Amino acid sequence: MTRTVYVNGEYKPENEATVSIFDRGFLFADGVYEVTSVLGGKLLDFDAHAVRLQRSLDELEMRNPISKEDLLEVHRELVRANNIQEGLVYLQITRGAADRDFAYPGDDVEPTIVLFTQSKPGLANSPMAQKGMKVISIEDQRWGRRDIKTVQLLYPSMGKMAAKAAGADDAWMIEDGMVTEGTSNNAYIVKGDTIVTRHLSNEILHGITRAAVLRFAREAQMKVEERSFTLDEAKDADEAFITSASTFVMPVVDIDGKAIGTGKPGSVAARLREIYLEESLKSAI
Ligand code: PDD
Question: Is 264 an active-site residue?
Fold first, then answer.
């Protein structure tokens, strides 16, 4: 089926949507993105994604070509037009098309904006949530502004491929002996009754799912520590899991071939996944 996508103010069939070969997203990875999940045909945490998008744009001195109200409307229209019940809306804004130059172009250059949907039936009832994921550890070789959600995702892609080659599902990245995050998700461990996840800084993406899950955990009187943890601490944990818009809360049962806890998805991750899905659906728009 041909999807309807959105490009620079217009809804188009996907095979007719184009951007310039001079687009700075293409030439310099000079662009930012957001991924918003859809459940029951509704958007999860749209407001928080819009706030983070604006922050990414501000950090890069990039103009926002669309108001929050119009952005919501485009998200909803694409979900409707493509009949998405469970899936994602991908949004990308780049600094636009200009003759190749490292210096940013002037304000006369219009940013490029693209949105498309991905249908993912079974997203909420993922078999992976029952089985758990296996991760490997790799060195974190990304740049130092991981708090900005840019489209320069080659190192995470390499990490994903290394994981696949090792028969695992994803990679956790390590810097100075500490776990930063997964290739496209935030990383957590559970020791006793305490949930540990890295504190916010420029070293990790400030996950929208992370913020929601930590809020729900605290509301449920669970203990949360926001601090760095080592790979050894993770391997010795009772549980491990990840969060992201595309996986919600997903248990990790194996790190570098070492079984975590019982080697089965843990009860804290399962409970958080349940609470997250229930609460986010309530506030979905
Ligand atoms: N990835 N850390 C990184 C490096 C990420 O790329 C992501 C999101 C997250 C989790 O953020 P959030 O909870 O806001 O989705 C953490 C998206 C889903 C992606 O690239 O597809």
Answer: no
